[in-house]
Design brief:
homodimer, 268 residues, mainly alpha, flat, DNA-binding, DNA-binding (chains A, B), HTH-type_TetR-like_transc_reg (chains A, B)
Chain lengths: 268, 268
DNA sequence: ACCTGAACACCGTTCAAGT
DNA sequence: ACCTGAACACCGTTCAAGT
């Protein structure tokens, strides 16, 4: 369980890799209605994150919500980051793990559903995309979902060596897209401006700079439609890989596409 | 220039949309060797971010590096976030804008180069992916690069309505991938553990949970190769779109793929 | 075993004051 | 025009002490 880093003051890489003293895993058997435990604290953290956002989430506010002193929480959790990891995996429990062996299941449609489900989650809990860029996201719910999607992907006929690349294309894209969308929403709402107004201002500002007049009219908000188009793009790319034609075929081909002429040593 | 939000205490959506009083844009004409200005402050910020990371970057430390009081910086910059936006666009100036009209240029190869260049940038300045999820990234360098890549994309023959979806697929993917990679690197190095050790620990931990034994052996670090595979996947998807076959064709087709059976109203 | 209070070493930012 | 010092309202976290 340990990641071998538990010397003196070293940090842990993830809550999910902690050596938790048995003593603290809840002394008496079942749930008591009185007193705190990790589940109650995590649930309160999710609630606070949902209502206040990541920036205003603090241990002191959380403790206040729980009607307890700020430092009580530290009995159950080593530090704030651990709590954020717990909260992240808790909401990821909302994801339905796709069943690759389901009757008549189409892998394309299952991938679409998984991608939209993940995006829906990141929209319902806007703070989550902020934590995804900081933590490992290897909690039980996240891993279950990821491994489930991986099994679906393998049913497409994609060679196993390419499965993780395709998974990366799918998940990194959904995550990146959600993160960008979220930062637009947050910034605009903090400024009390509609996303449309903000974009109009941006187009005007760019139009004033001579170097961008070519193309500035193409600037507009992250459109609803773009997500679908981009997703189909990724899925079509996976499909191309299954046909062995153009597509994600990394090695052993006449014209190896990876890496094609390194532009700079450190970039590839 | 203004985004219409400059009432009383409202925040701005971006530094790039500020109304900057002419008085503060540098009084006398050219550069002086003495005294501060935005360029010097931004350069110092990039230096500090590169050496210390986003978490340890503070206005007080920056001011100390500049040999000045913490509050002097606020004469040139409204708040810390503005400075981070300036630093982000400053490093994005390292990106070479592709020339869509170049002789004998292949759009696929140009897209590959752009993607690798962006990833290289995010690796040289690991803090940058952390800011990309928080700010609008609409500075002059970022916009120049993005519009340049967009022109390359259009030369593929992809219909204009799909260009932004394809751009989103490409950029969101590179950004998401870099962010995940960065969080692994940072977490492992903070714990003083190699990425490999960390993954071994994770696999062991997952193996101990009965629900993951199926597939746990598939867990391994974000591989170097995955990025290339995923990138080819996106490019193949774009190419599929240009052939009008399967691929990112959003509307007006026999079997509309977007949206296919909404799983839940809020998710699509 | 669980919770508290006081304290430490920081933050970003405001504001009145200096030159 | 530019820079400072003191202050405000917070942080995460440690630690000794309570029950």
């Amino acid at each position: 369980m340990s990641d071998g880093s538990r010397t003196s003051r070293m940090r842990r890489t993830s809550v999910w890799l902690e050596d938790r003293p048995e003593a603290r895993r809840k002394a008496s058997g079942a749930s008591q209605t009185e007193g705190l435990d990790r589940e109650k604290i995590t649930a309160a953290a999710v609630r606070l994150l949902d209502t206040e956002g990541l920036a205003r989430f603090s241990m002191r506010r959380l403790a206040a919500d729980l009607g307890v002193t700020a430092m009580s929480v530290y009995w159950y959790v080593d530090r704030k980051d651990d709590l954020l990891e717990l909260a992240l995996d808790a909401v990821e429990g909302e994801l339905e793990v796709p069943d690759a062996e389901a009757e008549g299941a189409d892998w394309r449609e299952q991938l679409r559903q998984a991608a939209f489900a993940l995006r829906g989650l990141l929209r319902r809990h806007p703070w989550a995309s902020g934590t995804l860029g900081s933590f490992l996201n290897v909690g039980p719910s996240a891993m279950g979902f990821q491994l489930g999607v991986r099994r679906v992907l393998l049913r497409s006929g994609l060679p196993e060596q390419q499965a993780d690349g395709a998974l990366a294309a799918l998940f990194s894209f959904v995550y990146g897209h959600a993160a960008v969308e979220e930062s637009w929403n947050r910034r605009c709402s903090e400024a009390g401006v509609s996303s449309q107004d903000c974009f109009d201002a941006l187009r005007t500002a760019l139009g004033a700079r001579p170097e961008y007049t070519a193309g500035a009219e193409a600037v507009y908000p992250v459109a609803e439609r773009d997500f679908g188009v981009a997703l189909e793009c990724v899925i079509a790319g996976i499909e191309a890989g299954t046909r062995g034609g153009r597509g994600p075929a990394p090695q052993g081909r006449a014209t190896p596409v990876i890496p094609p002429q390194p532009p700079s040593p450190e970039d590839r």
